[in-house]
Amino acid sequence: MPRTVKRLVLVSSIGVTKYNELPWSIMNLFGVLKYKKMAEDFVQNSGIPFTIIRPGRLTDGPYTSYDLNTLLKATAGERRAVVMGQGDKLVGEASRLVVAEACVQALDIDFTEGQIYEINSVKGEGPGSDPEKWKEQFRAVQSN
Length: 144
Known about the structure:
Elements: E1 8-11, H1 24-27, H2 32-44, E2 50-55, E3 57-59, H3 68-72, E4 81-85, E5 93-95, H4 96-107, E6 115-122, H5 131-143
Parallel strand pairs: 1-2, 2-6, 3-5
Antiparallel strand pairs: 4-6
């Protein structure tokens, strides 16, 4: 990547550090979690400023995989509120819309550089596209 890149945001997945443990090992039958962790390691060692976002199982379209969410056309519905964590401890679902907004917002928040965040969607309004609410979300995770 060119050195002019100011920040790279990588979308990975919760469970990447536990791909050999149940139930993650079942989800990793074809190596998806293992390879996502390898991508994270590559980005972290690249010297390029980064932020990594690890969402739970993705809901809302486009439905690109052959899992239960795709068959049911799972949507976040009223789950627009955000739960964030660090340390690969969260389990749950995340709206693609919320994940995309988290990525965009992280680019403009200096203290997210070099950090890894997990994200899930839960019932509620959530931060939407409000930069101050996103700063609060990211800051709350780092203070825990």
